[in-house]
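Take a careful look at the sequence and tokenised backbone pasted below. I need to know what the token row says about the fold.
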Amino acid sequence: MAFYALIMAGGKGTRFWPYSKGRKPKQYLSLLGSHSLLQQTIERLNGVVADGNRFVVTVKEQEELAVQQASKMINSDHGFIFEPAGRNTAPCILLALAHLTANKGHSVVDSEFQKSVVAILPSDHVILNESEFKKSLTLAVEMASKKEGLVTIGIRPNFPHTGYGYIKRGSVDKDQSNFFKVDSFKEKPSYDVACDYIKQGGYYWNAGMFVAPIGVFLNEFSKHAPSMYQKFPELVEAIKLKNPLKAKSIYENLEKESIDYAVLEKSSNIFVIEATFDWNDLGSWDALESVAKDSDKRQGNLIYKQRGEFIQQAKGNIVFAPNKFVSLINVEDLIIVDSPEALLILPKKDSQQVKKVVEYLENKPEFKDLL
């Protein structure tokens, strides 16, 4: 049984502005350590997925960045799959499956190829316990093949986060104690509802990681997103014939839908494994606190990549100021990000509001260099 990994790397990461921009989003930044988040994601697959079976899926405009960072870590001949334009995760995954089918020389109905298992993985998350991640991923692959179903990897919540979707688990598998039928998917909740989920138990954060045999993915698309799926054979054929204009034309007419909405939330053939590894999606600057190293801590503050610092009666601040001397006096719980082009300062509690700056700049042509 072949095993493939599709690493989704086309996001914009607007809440990490001003370092994460359209021309170099969060997944290409070295926020923690010397390697970018994308490179760390690929490295986590060492020993689990062969180099030639790893694929980076991103938008065409990020081609140069993706090739620069990942070409030595995957099969550079077929290891990059480029969307002609961003159309959300469902068409993106269907396009990636079409590339796998075409480039591996298979037909759409090849039964053996359809037994091959594919893992869909985000490119911009932080996982520090790599050995446990590999165990969870390996188990997900085994169970997806055994059950002939879709398997998600759920994160046990440790606080009532309102920025994540949730997965409600159903019955436990009789042979695997941390493997459950999925009861339902829940949208991002209010704080009170998130507290109730924690109190009840049996809910997981939806980390956007899921695994299934190729045939199962295609069957679920045909059931729940038929208008999208009917274009799949045409996509495969256009890719086989090396006709990018035809593939682009087909792709740009697919509905813009997330894989959650188009397939996962409608499926009755879906399971969840409880992750045994730490996880952080680095959704905003304040998330750095949960993955900080002791070497980044300065008298109760987190200060990254600075040249030096002076701190007096300051605590709880997060400062990202590469190669700058940082002075903090009588300030608390701020996020301070200094880039060559822009300065960002806001309370930690408002970290999700950074995207509003990006929205403002998108409507100001004179500031296009900041995006």
In short: The chain has a mean pLDDT of 92. The chain has two domains: 3-274, 285-370. The longest strand covers residues 203-213.
